[in-house]
Write a structure and sequence with these properties.
Elements lengths: L5 E8 L2 E8 L2 E5 L1 E6 L9 H6 L5 E3 L1 H6 L3 H6 L3 H5 L5 E3 L3 H6 L2 E5 L4 E4 L6 E4 L1 H11 L3 E3 L11 H22 L6 E6 L5 H14 L3 E4 L8 H8 L12 E3 L5 H9 L4 E4 L1 H7 L2 E4 L2 E4 L19 H5 L2 H9 L3 H27 L3 H14 L6
Helix pairs in contact: 6-7, 7-8, 11-14, 13-14, 14-15
Pathway: tRNA modification; tRNA-queuosine biosynthesis
GO molecular function, one term: metal ion binding
GO cellular component, one term: cytosol
Length: about 375
């Protein structure tokens, strides 16, 4: 344990790094995948079950928590960690992305964003200062600066204007965050898929100074090839001694490709959302448990997996409870997916430490290319 936030790179393999982020609430092994606990819960999972999958840190959502139950209420009840019974590190996003994607009747100005709640239509304002205050009330360990994230594709002027607004907001976020020992503030690089804008954004963030740096504005419609093109250069614009966080990513092959390009942290709703809709991620690729081919199959989802769904239940059972609309379906499939994601991260960390990342990645793609096992 430490009383401050620090990052150490322990080994590299090409651009990939493995290391540890030390926080007062515990260490975060990198590369790290952060399950998303949007409304102070990872859907269909108990916090202790999430920890059992190997997760070191969760993500909470500022926009959703400010609307319900309210940041002040969470603070009165002891903070987000106590409220949701998760005593390890929590990262909270700034709320900016959700305002742009979920809220109605938005009005964007230099000051911030005025919007109507998607829940009850109530009026709210988010600015760099209010976002910092909400995240302070929640008590998150890693705070994200407030930014704007335009959907792609967008014309270069729109992306440039948005990025420069986000950089001005980054300075205001830094000023409002102040000095909070044991807590970290991350800046967010923007700039779409334009190299010059990405570099300009990185230089602005470095001049302000942050505890970590995120690559934002990807996985918003540009496609994997364009995302990887940006990741081929963007992490290199950021400080080598600070963690790099790719926001909102992604599928297993997105994660592997991002780690190869120097990313240390990722988050995505995909493993939990997929679990609730009958989709399982396995070493052989994606399995749709809804399909009739599984109805009589006594084998587990993934014979090499040690999660509860694979240890104790057949594909036939998982097919049945999904078709019957039973809650246990989403619980087991979510547990499996989160376990698979954390197992993938552990494999990546080990491969980097041993200088065997290329072989690990080759095996990862080869096994997925074989496809799912044939029905019995």
């Amino acid at each position: 344990m430490t009383d401050r936030f620090q990052f150490t790179v322990n080994a590299t393999d090409g651009k990939a790094r493995t290391g540890v982020i030390n926080t007062p609430r515990g260490d975060i092994r990198t590369p790290a995948f952060m399950p998303v606990g949007t409304a102070a819960t990872v859907k269909a999972m108990l916090p202790e079950s999430v920890r059992e999958t190997g997760a070191d840190i969760l993500l909470g959502n500022t926009y959703h928590l400010m609307l319900r139950p309210g940041a002040e209420r969470v603070a009165r009840l002891g903070g987000l960690h106590k409220f949701m019974n998760w005593e390890r590190p929590i990262l909270t996003d700034s709320g900016g992305f959700q305002v742009m994607s979920l809220a109605s009747l938005r009005k964007l100005t230099e000051e911030g964003v005025t919007f109507s709640s998607h829940i009850d239509g109530s009026k709210h304002i988010l600015s760099p200062e209010t976002s910092m205050e909400i995240q302070r009330l929640l008590g998150s360990d890693i705070v994200m600066c407030f930014d704007e994230c335009p959907a792609l594709p967008a014309d270069e002027k729109t992306v440039a204007d948005s990025m420069r607004l986000s950089m001005r907001w980054a300075q205001r976020s830094r000023d409002a965050f102040g000095d909070r020992p044991g807590h970290a503030l991350f800046g967010i690089m923007q700039g779409g898929v334009t190299r010059d804008l990405r570099e300009e954004s990185a230089e602005a963030l470095k001049s302000i100074g942050f505890d970590g740096y995120a690559v934002g504005g990807l996985a918003v419609g540009e496609g994997q090839e364009a995302m990887f093109d940006v990741l081929d250069y963007a992490p290199g614009f950021l400080p080598q001694d600070k963690p790099r966080y790719l926001m909102g990513v992604g599928k297993p092959d997105d994660i592997v490709g991002a780690v190869q390009r120097g990313i240390d942290m990722m988050d995505c709703v995909l493993p939990s959302r997929s679990g609730r809709t009958g989709q399982a991620w396995t070493h052989r690729g994606q399995v749709n448990i809804k399909n009739a081919r599984h109805a009589d199959d006594p084998r587990p989802l993934d014979e090499s997996c040690t999660c509860p769904a694979c240890r104790g239940y057949s594909r036939a059972y998982l097919h049945h409870v999904f078709r019957a609309g039973e809650m246990i379906s989403g619980m087991l499939l979510t547990w499996h997916n989160l376990h698979y994601y954390q197992d993938l991260m552990a494999g990546l960390r080990g491969a980097i430490a041993e200088g065997q990342l290329d072989q690990f990645v080759s095996n990862f793609h080869a096994r997925r290319a074989e496809g799912d096992i044939e029905p019995v």
